[in-house]
Design a protein that fits this description.
295 residues; eight-stranded antiparallel sheet; globular
Length: 295
């Protein structure tokens, strides 16, 4: 059973990703990270509810120990309203310090509280809600086991030649001006793979990624090799990509990787993960992917 996320749910957020996470809860695209704001605007704390319904329960849960973040997080369980297409499911939401309480009713878009950065976050990850869905007979407390997710909205694949100029930087990342959203606010976009489809995930700093919006991704006759600008990335099975042992380079020097996601905001552009390297605003960058030396 797969859960289709309606466009009305996704359009509340500036960005989303099914695969850009190192945690098993996202395996196979069984959870989604919903980003209300963008890096350029700063780390927003807004936490709009993805659905209308009733708060079933709130729990404090442990998070991985990190020197820069608390070792606890909060799990909010929501029961969607009877009128919702998601009725009958339980919604699991993490990374929100709740201002709501058990038994409280909320409308879609109502504030659930304040976004927080627990030990689940890498330093380069922007604030977001982690959301998964469980059936009535499933354990809602386990970290993994949520239902597979399908998108109830289209994502436009954007051609990107691997080049761009740096428009913003942080201690661990740099954002390029390309590929640019052709009409910000009017639908979601993402980086196009050579054979079609939108790339999603942390390449290669997380184990795998996804190929979204590719009609041929489930076709047995489709070439399973996924590439970008002629550089091989890995092999797709269904819509899930197992990355090859590759290294991302920027101007010929290795960096940690590329962060790939879907966005509808005007600040969309390739995001370089580079905690060990700095870039200057306005700097011209060419990104390539090559086989790691172990290969």
């Amino acid at each position: 059973m797969a859960v289709t996320l309606p466009e009305a749910v996704l359009s509340q957020y500036e960005r989303f990703s099914l695969y850009n996470s190192p945690y098993p809860a996202h395996d196979g695209g069984c959870a989604i990270d919903l980003y209300p704001g963008t890096l350029v605007d700063g780390r927003t704390t807004a936490a709009p509810s993805p659905v209308a319904g009733t708060v079933r329960e709130i729990r404090t849960v442990r998070a991985p120990p990190k020197p820069y973040a608390p070792d606890h997080d909060h799990l909010i369980l929501l029961e969607p309203a009877d009128s919702s297409p998601l009725s009958g499911l339980t919604v699991r939401i993490l990374h929100v310090e709740p201002s709501v309480e058990g038994g409280q009713r909320v409308d879609r878009g109502d504030s659930l509280g304040r976004l927080v950065r627990a030990g689940f976050f890498a330093p380069w990850v922007d604030n977001h809600l982690h959301v998964g869905f469980r059936g009535p007979d499933q354990n809602p407390y386990r970290a993994s086991g949520s239902l597979p997710l399908e998108l109830g909205t289209s994502v436009r694949p954007l051609e990107w030649d691997g080049t761009g100029r740096v428009v913003s930087t942080g201690d661990t990342y740099a954002v390029l001006d390309a590929p640019a959203h052709p009409k910000p606010g009017a639908g979601f976009v993402g980086v196009r793979a050579d054979g079609g489809g939108v790339l999603d995930g942390g390449l290669p700093h997380y184990d795998g990624g996804g190929l979204l919006e590719s009609r041929g991704s489930l076709d047995a006759d489709r070439d399973p090799v996924v590439s970008l600008n002629g550089d091989r990335l890995g092999v797709v099975d269904g819509r899930t990509i197992a990355w090859d042992e590759v290294t991302v380079t920027a101007n010929g020097e290795p960096i940690t990787g590329l962060s790939l996601f879907c966005a509808r905001d005007g600040d969309f552009g390739a995001k370089l993960i580079c905690p060990d390297r700095s870039f200057e605003r306005g700097e011209r960058v060419r990104v390539r992917i090559r086989l790691s030396e172990a290969e």
